[in-house]
Prior knowledge:
mainly alpha; 3-stranded antiparallel sheet; 2 domains
Amino acid sequence: MGKHTTIKKETTKAATLEVVRQGSYVRTTAIRFAIAREGKVVRRVQGKQFHTMLKSSPLKLNEWASVVFVSPRTLQARIKENRSFDELQSDRMELVMHVMERGEEVFGDRKKFRRWLDAPRPALEDKKPVDMLNDLVGIGEVLAELGRIEHGVF
Length: 154
């Protein structure tokens, strides 16, 4: 990866966050998400809400389990009992759903987007985008790549 260069600082009540340029894109996903959350009560995702997310996204249950760091059985139990996820899991679910919505918007078709998620991408160091959704840096890189595709810069 390239040098880190601070482009702009965002100050919030909680902390000062930096937008960092690395390579050919700006990683702002986590920062925008943190700023949007500042001062707000984190909405906990309930089991039935997650079930709706699961049905409307191209990700499978085991992939969601990897994203929120729980077992597929735990996800199934939360759906069945309609129990809530903790704040971090809920935030991660909402962020990944944003990626899913952007992907379907960019590709215009869930099946095309799913094929894109499953194939190694040179711009992502030959990693599969679906495998990069388990941390904020990976999510930011996937969103940046979707933006490049949308604007024809790849």
